[in-house]
Amino acid sequence: MSTILLTGATGFLGSHIAKAMLANGYKVVALKRRASSLHRLESIAKDIVFYDLEGLDLATPFKQQSRIDAVIHTATCYGRGGESAKQIFQANIGFPLQLLETATFFNTETFLNTDSILHPHLNAYALSKKQFADWGRQLAKNDRIRFINIRLEHMYGPGDDASKFTTWVLGQCLENVPELALTKGEQQRDFICVFDAVAAYTYLVQHRNALSLGFQELGLGSSKPISVRHFVEIVHRLTASQTRLIFGALPYRAQEQMQSCADTTTLQAMGWHCKINLEEGLTRIIEDMAMKTRMHR
């Protein structure tokens, strides 16, 4: 049985990856903070080997497990909770860099890193993600590890954080708020359902030896970008919302990325394909939200 070390297992993407890895016969070792909620992992927590990060020597999991075959790094700090630049640096560069060096020392061959497609000068989060990817490129030069840098596009799915743009728009439309102030919405975004994203991570772990050692960068999205305005209009229609959409009420952010589309050529050549179209994926979220609303009545 191959063993996967996973960071961010208690988060949205990480919890889905943990479930997929277990379903495919992998042993899952997860690094987490002691205070992290396990609500997303309730059904599988007993099958995961957890290590709390507080006071942990990162070498310990590698020593105690017979072998860790791959690391999947999804943990991140977005800076939405008022974290300082130092805290974002430590979470997004310091911690994963130490983990990467430790994995290399213990001869783990594959490190899958979840990167952002945002412009590095947009905010501290985007800058830190770009800088860690650069460190991965540097440390993978000696071909001692396979560093797969996954540039993940705009992921969405049932149970995602309410602070995410996709979930926020869905929530506002379902609640029929009177008005929704938005930018002009000309930005082109590549939206991918979490189930397709997780299928790609699973495929990369299963077929990791098809990629050479060293640094590899892969795009992960649907490769079918649409405008933010079109996305909001689809949500508005699917939710039958009475909310008034006011496009152009907000300015674009400084360094706003106007075009984004994943190059999935390598993934498709390996056999992975995006299977869930946007309307199907959004319908799943709407049904999930409606079910949770009924349960809480």
Task: Write a structural description.
The protein is an alpha/beta fold. The chain has a single domain (3-295), classed as 3-Layer(aba) Sandwich (Rossmann fold), CATH 3.40.50.720. It is 38% helix and 20% strand. It has 9 helices and 13 strands. Strands 3-2-1-4-5-6-11 form a 7-stranded parallel sheet, with helices on both faces. A two-stranded parallel sheet has the order 7-10. Strands 8-13 form a two-stranded parallel ribbon. α3 (85-105) links the parallel β4 (70-73) and β5 (110-116).
Which CATH-level-2 architecture? Answer: 3-Layer(aba) Sandwich
Please write the CATH class name.
Alpha Beta
DSSP helix fraction: 25-40%
Q: What is the ordering of alpha helices and beta strands?
A: EHEEHEHEHEEHEEEHEEHEHH
Please tell me the overall pLDDT: 95
Overview in brief:
By secondary structure, the chain is of the alpha/beta class. 38% of the residues lie in helices and 20% in strands.
Characteristics:
297 residues; alpha/beta; Rossmann fold; 7-stranded parallel β-sheet; globular
Secondary-structure blueprint of this entry?
Blueprint: E1 3-7, H1 12-23, E2 27-32, E3 48-52, H2 59-64, E4 70-73, H3 85-105, E5 110-116, H4 124-139, E6 146-152, E7 154-156, H5 165-174, E8 179-182, E9 188-189, E10 191-193, H6 194-206, E11 214-220, E12 226-227, H7 228-238, E13 244-247, H8 265-270, H9 278-295
Parallel strand pairs: 1-2, 1-4, 2-3, 4-5, 5-6, 6-11, 7-10, 8-13
Antiparallel strand pairs: 9-12
Helix pairs in contact: 1-6, 3-4
